[in-house]
Structure formats: C-alpha cells, structure tokens
Amino acid sequence: MVRRRIPRPSELAPLLRPAPVTLDRTAVRLARAASIGDLRLLARKRAPRAVFDYTDGAAEDEIGLRRARDAWASVEFTPSVLRDVSRIDTGTDVLGGRSALPFALAPTGFTRMMHTAGERAVAAVAARSGIPYTLSTMGSTTIEGVADAGAGGRRWFQLYLWRDRSFAHDLVARAAAAGYDTLMLTVDTPVGGNRRRDVRNGLSIPPALSLRTFLDGARHPRWWFDLLTTEPLAFESLASGGGSPFEVINRVFDPALSMDDVAWLRANWPGKLVVKGVQSVTDARRVADAGADGVLLSNHGGRQLDRAPVPVELIEPVVQELGDDAEVLVDTGIMHGGDVVAAVALGARAALVGRAYLYGLMAGGEAGVARAVEILRGEVERTMQLIGVTRVADLRPEHARLRSSISDAAHPNEGRAAGAESG
C-alpha cells in the first residue's frame, strides 16, 4: 500500500524552475527548434507560401530531391566503441584554407526574399562560425557588401556565365579585389528547371502584389512590412529585369557554356576554382583535367533536371577516379550533421548546405541562420563521438556506408528485379 505525505517546501524548490521571461518570441521559437526540420516548420509559418516554396521546392515531380534525402537516410554508421571521445576536432582543410566544420554554406539566389537580412546575415554567421560562405551571382547583396558583412571569414563566389561575357569578367575581377578566395562555376543550368511550385504560385522576381500574394500577405504581415520598408529587392549582380525565375535564367544564362570557359577561368582566376553541378565520373575527370581544384557533385538541390543522379552515390566512384587531382565536395538534400559526417567518411572533402540555413533565415533572420549552424555543428560533433572518431581527418569509408549498396551486393538478383519493376 502506498503511503502518502505532504512534500516539504525544500523538496519542491528544485522542481520549480520556470523558464526565464523574454519578450523576444522569435528567440524562444528558435531555442526550441531541435532540428533543421523544426526550423523548416517555423519557416513555413513565417514566410509567404510562394517564398517558402521557392526555397523548399524542386523541379518537376521533385523525385530527384526525394531520392537524395532517401539516400542520406540510407546511410548506416559503424561505431567503434571504447574510444576516448572527450575532445572532438571538427576542423578540416578545404580548398587551401581551414574550416571549423566540414561544411560550407552554399550559394542561394535572391536570399533577401527569404528575409530582408539576406546574404549579409548569412555571411556574418559564417564568419563567426569559421566556415566558408558562397555568394551567388543571383544574390541580392553586392559582392562588396557581403565582403564587409563577412569580414574575417572565408568568402567564395559562385559564378553563372551569361550570354554577354563582359559581365562575368567584371564579376570575377570584383570578387578577386574583394578578397574571395574561391570561384565556383555552376555548369548544370543551360536552361532553367521546371519548378512547378513557382509556376503554380505565380512567383515573380521581385515579388509582385497580385491578388493571390496580397491575400497570402495578410497572413504574413511582418514579411510584407519588411519587404516594403527596406531597400528594394533586386539581383545586385544581374541587370535582368523581372519575370519568373525560369524566364530570368533563360534570358540571361548562356546555354553555350563549354570546357573552353573552364580553361579561360583557370587562366584568369588567381584563387581556387571549383566546378559545381558535376553529375558523372566522366565529367569529373574532364573538369579536373581542365585545371579545376575542386569538383562539386550536385544536381542543384533537385531544382534542375528531375531524376538526375544522386550526388552522395557518386562520391566514392569520383574519389577513386580523381585521387589527389581535385578535391571532391557534395551537396543536395543535406538536412542533418550526420549527413555531413557521412559525406566525409565516404570520401568527400566537405559538404555544402543550402536549404538548411535558408529555413533558419526565414524562421528568424540572422539568429535563425546561427541556430541552423548550431544545430548542424552539434549533430556533427555528436555523430563523430558516437562512432568513435575524434578528428574529421580520421573519417574513413569503414565508418559509413549506403544501405542500398549493401542490399544490392548481398542480393544482386533482387536488386535488379526491383529496378526493372520500378523503371
């Protein structure tokens, strides 16, 4: 039989610990976010639907993005126990410099549309965190403005080549003068991908006040207030006029991009050169032979060719092909620090994350970006400790593998049959 009593005040005191009162509701929401998925849910509430979908969506049926995330989810780690993991070094050398974490922040277009703090906020967080940030040609802050905001940090510049090459030549010169140490040429965008969410939402750049966006704006008054009371949204490096993202890309980007352009950049860019959008072993070898210092395995976050190869599945064969000829980087679908650890274990030098920090930006501006990096940092550290590795440099293929590859190897006939049925 249970005997009950009245607890003493001294026994209740340790249990009564109310949370500190704060008027900053955004800070409270961000502190409660335990994952990038939580930040995504906050972003969905804070941003208009067209803006959220521009970030969250992909091309056509979005199969490529789902496959990428499924591939990361299929990673199986192999822990090694009874290791002293009391101290963890998450730093790594990538493209001639040090990064405090084995990932960089990827280039994203028109970032001030997600939050008016935009690229400046992202660059500032990256500099404080000791990781590189990549400004996009389609960015909404100038090359020089990002250099100021990210002073002291590593800055990379992502380049699209336009039909009028003189603009690209000017951007390359400005990036070099502003202290960017790496140039990232994107090669998977000869035409714009068919992003159906943008079509259905009637998204234009800059956003237009249609009846639909006006009604949606009534549910997101803070976003519209910020948009209308800050400097106008524009592509700071791109005098393109308005239109949908698809129309802007097709009007400005050059579908005649070739290996000659890679050779020209190699001859004229003084820093590290990365080619972004490589999706085969053959192309990885071609760009490495043309002088690229790095190869970024990427299908543009699933936003260009739907059902394109899954980048994480290319890491091992590309690393085997290139050896020390070029560093291998990877992006697309990364939503957890464990994905970053797996990428390095499989052979990549580092990973790039894009949507993950954009969710944070939409959820809470600069503080949201900082929270996204904090979440990923914690996941990287914890994953390394749990698999028994104390340094990024010690990650090896024996620490991580893709379960789909294991299944196919164990049951080759079943794998082929499944593939035949699914088309």
TrEMBL record:
It comes from the Bacteria. The active site is at 300 (proton acceptor). Its cofactor is FMN. GO terms for molecular function: (S)-mandelate dehydrogenase activity; FMN binding. InterPro entries: Aldolase_TIM (IPR013785), Alpha-hydoxy_acid_DH_FMN (IPR012133), FMN-dep_DH (IPR000262), FMN_HAD (IPR037396), FMN_hydac_DH_AS (IPR008259). Glyoxylate binds at residues 54, 160, 195, 300, 303. This is (S)-mandelate dehydrogenase.
